[in-house]
Amino acid sequence: MVTQQNITSNTLDKAHLLKMYEQMMTIRQFEERAGREFAAGKIPGFVHLYAGEEAVAVGVCAHLTDEDFITSHHRGHGHCIAKGVDIRAMVAELLGREAGACRGKGGSMHIADVHKGMLGANGIVGEGFPLATGAGLTAKHNGRGQVAVCFFGDGAANQGTFHESLNLAGIWKLPVIFVAENNGYAESTPVTYHMSCRDIAERAAGYSMPGLTVDGLNIFAVYEAAGEAIARARRGEGPSLIECKTYRYYGHFEGDTITYRTREEVASYRSRDPILALRNSLQERGIASAEELDGLDKQVTERIDDAWRFAEAAPLPQPEEALTDVYVQYP
Ligand SMILES: Cc1ncc(C[n+]2csc(CCOP(=O)(O)OP(=O)(O)O)c2C)c(N)n1
Ligand SMILES: [Mg+2]
């Protein structure tokens, strides 16, 4: 297991490293604030927090441009931030405001921004697979070297759509990278109970694609594995499956009483915190000082405060717009 002391990468310069740190910190603070606001009754609907898993979204998206596609799931705030979705529009979406990324009609589980290649968070477990596979087909036809990344959970790996999509992506050699975020649980069910194999990556062999398991708490392990898979996809050599072993710090959803795991387990993961690990690595290698990193943390807090002020002051959609920007079937 890679620990806080020995995470490193020789291929990234200071600007890139600080950008990764800042994005991870933005996700962490965004989620902590969302948790507090939810507890205060400010956010309608369900909220699933991504805190603890930041290294996965950031390590993968560091290789992507706005031309590339991603699909996400119910725990999607981190993917949105890593792909560059505006956090004002995200908070406005959480609050159902017209200025929201989906004009306030999607909420936490349905944030999308197609201009950023973020094709959507998704409340239906396993629905990102066909979307990403379709985006991969588009990318292949476009011939511009675009890729599609599908982020999904360990629970989602047991849906039929997982197998169907990996099979099609394998047959058609689509530029899709399937990124498993194995956080050990699907709701309250441990992965050892719900999965027939030890590692999700083993399943790649069934679809003739490379499969790799990495430490999802180590941003550099994720970054390097994703870099290889994405470069392979851009070269037209087809899909890959990367499994990142990670952990969510909060409950399955906000309000979860969390009776299915111990305090010791949570504490043991928190002691290997992915952001702290990166911070320690940057300081130990003389890349950034504590003061510089504290300054970045403060800027992140200010941006999140600004996003909340903006969203709280933003108007709700008008009643007559209830049926615009949504798919509705009339009888
Ligand atoms: C098709 C479908 N079945 C069940 C649910 C209820 N549900 C929501 S999240 C979840 C667990 C997902 O676990 P995992 O894929 O591991 O993601 P994690 O929550 O751990 O990030 C379930 C069963 C759903 N939303 N959609
Ligand atoms: Mg899970």
From TrEMBL:
Span of domain Dehydrogenase E1 component: 23-320
Organism: Ktedonosporobacter rubrisoli
Gene3D superfamilies: 3.40.50.970
Essential cofactor(s): thiamine diphosphate
Matching InterPro entries: DH_E1, PDH_E1_Alpha_Subunit, THDP-binding
Signal peptide (residue range): none
Protein name: Thiamine pyrophosphate-dependent dehydrogenase E1 component subunit alpha
GO BP terms in the entry: pyruvate decarboxylation to acetyl-CoA
Keywords: Oxidoreductase, Thiamine pyrophosphate
Domain of life: Bacteria
Keyword Oxidoreductase: yes
